[in-house]
Amino acid sequence: MEKGNAMLDLPDHDTLYDALLARDPAFEGRALVGVTTTGIFCRLTCPARKPLPQNCRWFASAEAAQAAGFRPCRRCHPLGPSAEGDPLVRDLMARLQERPDHRWSESDLLALGHDPSTVRRAFKRHFGQSFLEMARAARLRGGMASLTKGSTMIEAQLEAAFDSASGFRTAFGRLFGHAPHQMRQGSDLLADWIDTPLGGMIAIADDRALHLLEFIDRKALPDGLRRLSAHVGGRVGLGRTPVHDLTEAQLAAYFAGRARRLDVPVTLHGTPFQQQVWRALQAIPAGETRSYAQLAATIDRPTAIRAVARANATNRIALVVPCHRVIGADGTLTGYAGGLWRKEKLIAIERGYA
């Protein structure tokens, strides 16, 4: 069995072979299979015909597989993140990037020769949301940027490409938990959008610290925004501070491989126990991972594994407080609120820092 660099050991052969047969996505970014009869290595989710168990070798990274003389599969593209191995996803993501303001519909998908249900399943599998939901978020981003600049509601609505003001308000309300006009009052905390290679993020900050950083498509984002708003007496509006600029610059350096640590001041809104867990997360170096049990031991609470897991799940400052560095005790990628596909990519990025 091959070992991963700075990663936990792979599970046993039978577990990995069962995962290969089931095309289990839980092992994306954690294990690859090399087929000795073909000299090719694949993701465990590869749709190709499955090899016999005695013809399988297991690797924790593409680098290890290539060092052993295996070539990457042309069907599942194991050198890239899992979503990039799906030609349907690659095609539609490129089209969305070219036309972010277009009001995409199922009719558009049919015109491109795609079955909407197939598209929906593929995007749900990789991103936890449908293509049309991603397209709506991209349009909402335009409207939010317009409102931040002080535009009228109708201007923001048109920039977001919504048919009606009510449609825009509904989408905005789903995101922020209240109507757009309520975020144009004088506020102590300001919310703005930050683009990253893994999708848009909402950052909320004052002049001193970052209070929230979440991917725009996280299902719990509206609830997190409502909780933060309640915590500060509703003083959350739209705008930008120097902390937003610092966060954006730090994220750009991180994704470019120039900054292993996101050195941004944060204000943690949680119980003393939650804050203790979140501080422990910040102490995990980039390129390393911990299990929930290891994290609990770090804070001298070895029996509080479930409480640690809950605190990890309620983190509202993604990446800066790196909850993505916590994995299952068996080395698999466990749940990540930002999507397992993002967790896979983040861990792959941080291997370069190890």
Automatic annotation (TrEMBL):
It catalyses: a 4-O-methyl-thymidine in DNA + L-cysteinyl-[protein] = a thymidine in DNA + S-methyl-L-cysteinyl-[protein]; a 6-O-methyl-2'-deoxyguanosine in DNA + L-cysteinyl-[protein] = S-methyl-L-cysteinyl-[protein] + a 2'-deoxyguanosine in DNA. It holds the Pfam family DNA_binding_1. The keyword Transferase applies. Residues 112-186 form the HTH araC/xylS-type domain. CDD domains: ATase. It comes from the Bacteria. Keywords: Activator, DNA damage, DNA repair, Methyltransferase, Transferase. NCBIfam families: ogt. This is Trifunctional transcriptional activator/DNA repair protein Ada/methylated-DNA--[protein]-cysteine S-methyltransferase. It comes from Paracoccus benzoatiresistens.
